[in-house]
């Protein structure tokens, strides 16, 4: 660099230093206001985590953002700023499907930021139980994957514990990687959770045909096994590779380019209204011709857009099904209220699992 440009950089850096001091001051001013809100909440029994408000803060800013910073930066900076402010009110305890650096862990960090205490739990049912016993404030559980469909263990637990609420949803782009500390031709066994193996089946059979596939409880557990056993590989996240010190032989080996998992944050309350919300329900209908059509007609006549519907075998009664659905709108919206009243009359049983802000697509 020439002396002139050296000086120019110095001047620009001095301006950055000045701005950073102002930003720091503003961040702390903002945090002090959040602390005041926290005091009012603790006096009135209010709930610390307000997902609708958090989403409102971020989407207001994204609407106003004129760049050059991209939305992903604004979102991640504000996620941590809000997370830090929230932790000044109380450090929330969050259970996720472990071990560390599983996709559930990534979803928990994406929703709550660093200002929480994250607790890895061994299986989905234990997450529901930890939330129900109030050992943790919230749990993060997978709901569905764009390639593999619903996560049966999660739906099964909603049937067992319909009193728990979905207070937020998180969408995570799932990229799989082949992790190994040996060469590709030396791999004898490949570990991962069943869904991840199935999402990469074509790639694996084409590129590592000599290896056998072995199912384990999570992608991170697979990475741990690779650390211990020679001639093995794992299908897991980039973060798991870094955490467990394993080389990434190939990135993005998923068969479908658009591979995404939707997670639910479960707690004991649902979320306020943002204007861009969804409501999730679980229902049973009479075993008679046309009863599902009657339900669907309720959505049609009230102009409510269905975003998900699943039929799920009911374990307590052979041949009977429970339906899960979510749709646009908040339980407080007039047309959703009307739809829910209609459902109440038509269904044998109806549980409202919660209203929550629609999660943004991952940038
Ligand atoms: O508005 C609130 O209720 C706050 O507590 C403030 C705040 C924020 O930092 O903006 C923090 C935590 C909540 O989850 C939502 C928003």
UniProtKB/TrEMBL annotation:
Top-level taxon of the source organism: Bacteria
MF term (GO), any: chorismate mutase activity
Keyword field contains Coiled coil: yes
UniProt keyword annotations, A-Z: Amino-acid biosynthesis, Aromatic amino acid biosynthesis, Coiled coil, Cytoplasm, Isomerase, Lyase, Multifunctional enzyme, Phenylalanine biosynthesis
Limits of the Chorismate mutase domain: 3-93
GO cellular component, one term: cytoplasm
Residues of the Prephenate dehydratase domain: 93-268
Lyase in keyword set: yes
InterPro entries assigned to the protein according to its UniProt record, in alphabetical order: ACT-like_dom_sf, ACT_dom, Chor_mutase/pphenate_deHydtase, Chorismate_II_sf, CM_dom_sf, CM_II_prokaryot, Preph_deHydtase
Catalyzed reaction equations: prephenate + H(+) = 3-phenylpyruvate + CO2 + H2O; chorismate = prephenate
Subcellular location, principal: cytoplasm
Enzyme Commission number, as recorded: 4.2.1.51, 5.4.99.5
Listed pathway(s): Metabolic intermediate biosynthesis; prephenate biosynthesis; prephenate from chorismate: step 1/1; Amino-acid biosynthesis; L-phenylalanine biosynthesis; phenylpyruvate from prephenate: step 1/1
Subcellular location: Cytoplasm
UniProt feature coiled coil, ranges: 2-29
Positions of the record's site feature: Essential for prephenate dehydratase activity: 261
GO biological process: chorismate metabolic process; L-phenylalanine biosynthetic process
ACT domain segment(s): 280-357
Job description of the protein: Catalyzes the Claisen rearrangement of chorismate to prephenate and the decarboxylation/dehydration of prephenate to phenylpyruvate.
Protein name: Bifunctional chorismate mutase/prephenate dehydratase
Organism per entry: Telmatocola sphagniphila
The organism's taxonomic lineage, starting at the top: Bacteria, Pseudomonadati, Planctomycetota, Planctomycetia, Gemmatales
